[in-house]
Automatic annotation (TrEMBL), chains A, B:
Cell location: Cytoplasm
Protein's name in the database: Ribosomal RNA small subunit methyltransferase E
PANTHER family: 16S RRNA (URACIL(1498)-N(3))-METHYLTRANSFERASE (PTHR30027:SF3), RIBOSOMAL RNA SMALL SUBUNIT METHYLTRANSFERASE E (PTHR30027)
Organism encoding this protein: Vreelandella piezotolerans
Enzyme Commission identifier(s): 2.1.1.193
Function: Specifically methylates the N3 position of the uracil ring of uridine 1498 (m3U1498) in 16S rRNA. Acts on the fully assembled 30S ribosomal subunit.
Length: 236, 236
């Protein structure tokens, strides 16, 4: 928790009050926070700055906010379309990509996504929110990503992809493509990453016919969470 | 397990036999392997290729090896010096960096490494070996990284660093450095990454005085496992 991310409902003009067990425990056990300590805070969707701890008990922490005038760090110019990973991988991947600055995430069904993954409790809005918050707290950011679920590949292809590509360059990460992943890109990008086992050839063909470029990350097969971090870091 | 990594002791001229529960369970439950299936295998430290499954029981799998004439994928030209992370982070980080192709890893004590981490069972040679093997199996590689433990920062600075830097460019990843992480490097590199909380200023000064260049990955604070993957992917 490199930033205490405050919900607007926890803030009045000059003070913030938090009462949830997770953050209180962290303040007690990790920060070992004491009255008078200045900590980094940020308001969800807003600015960041410092706050002084007025009181800390087992039940609440009360902060006096200083002028919050620091902006959140820049976002990556990317919309990430990720074939739904298995639940534990999803949780970690959401934290990684949120920390790295992704603000638009579509979780997509593809042929090699196990259908049972769509029933996982990890897909509940509150669970997803939890992982996004952990990513923001890690990276000192205040702007939550949007996460959209898309349970049909064809529906995505026909319904959403044309609009997404009208303003972005589409890049499909897939082993065996001719071109290597580009580096140091700053144009708006739609990055598509397949599941463990990859997109099926038909899916890759459809994405390329729709206007995406294929690219690869080299001969090594990486886990989804490693691949996504590696792709984002190389691209931007 | 994208590759069945065979210990030389499991191989005779044209056959391989594996008997450990982990790989047998994986063959049964994930691969759902059947007699006659061709799977990708590799011999530790050697070549890769295909093998046909002759028999699979609860107790052993017997393979007929085809000509193993594929080389392991290229290694990254890097020696990674990593301040010892907390045990669970260490485990995952070893898997990530092995999958990415790192072959030389030094785990280093620095001021902000909790001393208790050095007592963790995760540092036992057999546990480390396990994570390296998982990384190789993921990435289809056969060459195990060397992992060295260095429990003293000064000892490292005076004893090992000069030699390491005589053949490599040293790069210290540290927030607030003037230069950004370089991209697309192919020269031999010594990459030094601090613990959660970072190197202390004195440590950074000493590393820079010894001839390393400082660099940063941007304003976001990343977890060690995310940062290391991001650094390796951007550098190479």
């Amino acid at each position: 928790m490199n930033l205490i991310l405050l919900d607007p409902s926890e803030v009045d003009a000059h003070h913030a009050r938090i009462t949830d067990a997770r953050r209180l425990t962290h303040l007690h056990d990790v920060h070992r926070a004491q009255q008078g300590d200045r900590l980094t805070v940020g308001i969800q969707g807003g600015a960041m700055g410092k706050a002084s701890l007025i009181t800390l008990s087992q039940h609440e922490a009360l902060f006096a906010l200083e002028d919050l005038c620091e902006s959140a760090p820049p976002a990556l110019p990317v919309h990430l379309v990720l074939a739904l990973p298995r639940p534990r991988m999803l949780a970690r991947t959401l934290e990684h990509v949120t920390a790295l600055g992704v603000k638009e995430i579509t979780l997509l069904h593809t042929k090699r996504v196990e259908k049972s993954y769509w029933q996982s409790p990890e897909l509940r809005a509150d669970k997803i929110h939890q992982h996004l918050v952990l990513g923001l707290e890690q990276a000192r950011d205040t702007l939550l990503p949007n996460v959209t679920l898309c349970k049909g590949f064809k529906a995505f292809l026909e319904g959403q992809l044309p609009q997404l590509l009208s303003e972005r360059r589409g890049l499909v990460a897939h082993p065996g493509m001719e071109n290597a992943c580009p580096r140091d890109v700053d144009e708006p990008t739609l990055l598509l990453v397949g599941p463990e086992g990859g997109f099926i050839p038909w899916e890759v063909e459809q994405l390329i016919q729709a206007g995406c470029d294929g690219m690869h990350l080299g001969p090594r097969i990486l886990r989804v969470e490693t691949a996504v971090t590696a792709l984002l870091s190389r691209l931007f």
